[in-house]
């Protein structure tokens, strides 16, 4: 049957009708999945023909050559056919825009770069793990890779138009080792998680609007890489290993266009008031885990957060003032101890100062101004009895009355003895 199919394919390439080719190839379709393998000994042209004829939902028209038929195909349904090779044979259909290859056994997506018009690729539930040989078609807009074994997504640097990326449900497991790890090593071993190549992530940063990362082992650290996706409208990170509400808040504050968020099945939902905190962080969020965020809910939470913030600010200012007053009192007490001033005396002086009438003054040393506070000396002369006061000029040669000598050299007045 393989030889017959090959002969008819060659004849149709020379212009024969398509009906003869379809009748001769119907017998070859009995083995189905086994013929689809790229490792098969069947020539690639035969494999390509079988794949296309089984995946096309229509038949060539009378008189239409196979090449024209291949060129006219825009949709190809190859799901559930047990394909376990690559997709290189599909290059004979350059006009493909939608390709369904889910529920197969594919281990690679190589060979799709030549389909330059391909916009939708459905490759869920295969055995894809190493994406190093994948080069995305330049017109690709929607990519479905759910249910595979991908740990590092690469190859998107050639597809700047991707709007939807579905990566949920990756079947990631720890790689077995020859030696049995100890309990301590098992605790330190990190669980596998889906990661993005930096170039691929930056390429789709401005076009990606929908991202599904559910059940991909994403951690708080891995979530930070999504901050570059500034055009994202819908994000599904449910059933992962997220435990920090603060980390999610920081991400939402930097995604200004996010409208829908799914976070069910994460440890962070055990945190206090997690929904209120997420609603305040996501300024345009309309839905969280399918539950609508009402405008009045965000407004109420915003007012409550503002009042709480102001109250905390006032409390902090009061505590700061009390701390400053305590420090000033401690410094004053220390200065008092160093100068040897008795606290009781200081209190008595303070009471005296408080009792002074308005306009009263104090001396330089801090005491109340009075006669006793001024320096003086004892009067030890006889005054009118005729003894001179100390420190005054001696009497002149003239016969002057008693008490006529003054501190000044000028005689101010004279008196007669009584």
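Q: What amino acid sequence fits the structure above?
A:
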């Amino acid at each position: 049957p393989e030889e017959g199919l090959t002969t008819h394919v060659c004849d149709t390439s020379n212009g024969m009708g398509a009906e003869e080719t379809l009748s001769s190839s119907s017998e070859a379709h009995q083995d189905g999945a086994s013929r689809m393998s790229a490792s098969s000994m069947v020539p690639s042209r035969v494999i390509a023909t079988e794949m296309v004829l089984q995946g096309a939902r229509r038949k060539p028209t009378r008189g239409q050559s196979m090449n024209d038929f291949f060129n006219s195909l825009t949709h190809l349904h190859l799901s559930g056919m047990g394909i376990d090779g690559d997709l290189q044979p599909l290059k004979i259909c350059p006009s493909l825009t939608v390709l369904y290859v889910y529920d197969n056994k594919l281990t690679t997506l190589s060979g799709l770069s030549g389909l330059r018009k391909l916009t939708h690729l459905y490759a869920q539930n295969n055995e894809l793990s190493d994406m190093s040989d994948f080069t995305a078609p330049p017109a690709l807009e929607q990519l479905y890779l759910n249910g595979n074994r991908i740990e590092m997504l690469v190859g998107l640097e050639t597809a700047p138009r991707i709007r939807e990326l579905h990566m949920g449900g990756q079947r990631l497991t720890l790689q077995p080792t020859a030696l049995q790890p100890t309990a301590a090593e098992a605790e330190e071993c990190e669980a596998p998680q889906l990661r993005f190549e930096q170039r691929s992530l930056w390429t789709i940063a401005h076009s990606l609007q929908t991202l599904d990362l559910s059940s991909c082992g994403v951690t708080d650290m891995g979530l930070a890489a999504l901050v570059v996706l500034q055009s994202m409208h819908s994000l599904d990170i449910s059933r992962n290993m997220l435990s920090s509400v603060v980390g999610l808040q920081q991400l939402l504050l930097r995604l200004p266009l996010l409208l829908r968020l799914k976070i069910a099945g994460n440890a962070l939902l055990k945190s206090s008031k997690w929904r209120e905190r997420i609603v305040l962080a996501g300024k345009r969020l309309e839905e969280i885990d399918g539950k609508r965020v009402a405008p009045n809910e965000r407004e109420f939470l915003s007012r409550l957060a503002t009042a709480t913030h102001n109250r905390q600010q006032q409390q902090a200012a009061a505590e700061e003032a009390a701390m400053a007053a305590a420090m000033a009192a401690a410094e004053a007490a220390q200065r008092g101890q160093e100068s040897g001033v008795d606290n009781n005396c200081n209190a008595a002086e303070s009471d005296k100062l408080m009792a002074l009438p308005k306009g009263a003054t104090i001396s330089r040393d801090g005491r109340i101004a009075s006669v006793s506070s001024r320096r003086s000396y004892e009067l030890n002369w006889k005054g009118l009895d005729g003894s001179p006061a100390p420190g005054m000029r001696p009497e002149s040669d003239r016969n002057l009355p008693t008490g006529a000598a003054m501190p000044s050299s000028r005689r101010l007045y004279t008196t007669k003895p009584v």
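Q: And what stands out in the fold?
A: Residues 1-42, 176-189, 409-415 have pLDDT under 50 and may be disordered.
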